[in-house]
Amino acid sequence: MVLSVDKLMKALYVKTRNLNASSLKTYVYEAPVIATLYFNYWRFFMKKIICTFLLFCVVHPAFAIGTVHGKVVAVRVDGTGQGMVEFDKPIAGTPPSCVHHAFKNKLAFDANTAGGQAVLSLALSAKAMGVEVEAYGLGKCGVYGGTYVETWNYGVMR
């Protein structure tokens, strides 16, 4: 039986509003039952909220992103416009499970999009100047090779 808080509060209000000598005996016996039901309802509700929050924290895809703080070693762009940036350090953090071991230090981009062109520009500039790039993956594969290289999310040239 599912009880809402409104039903419980209404039952408690009705019981206390029309209190007289004959109904006092009934109220004394039923009030603890209503209070217990109310407490159990909130305890169950709070358990659901806490479990949902913990589940969200554990399996949220934001925790499955790779990060790298390093220099650009190479930039590869194919004729299709898909490319990848190779760094001097491996991708740290928790890369997604789709990343192939041969691409542990690379992030992919699509130069056919405006964002991909910005990534290409940033990578080439960083390579030419020899400065470090702070880059973050998207947490999924899908741009270069379909399912082998993590997709570039954003980056900063330092």
TrEMBL record:
Q: Which residues cross the membrane?
A: 49-68
Q: What is the name of the protein in this document?
A: Uncharacterized protein
Q: Cite the entry's keywords alphabetically.
A: Membrane, Transmembrane, Transmembrane helix
From which domain of life does this come? Bacteria
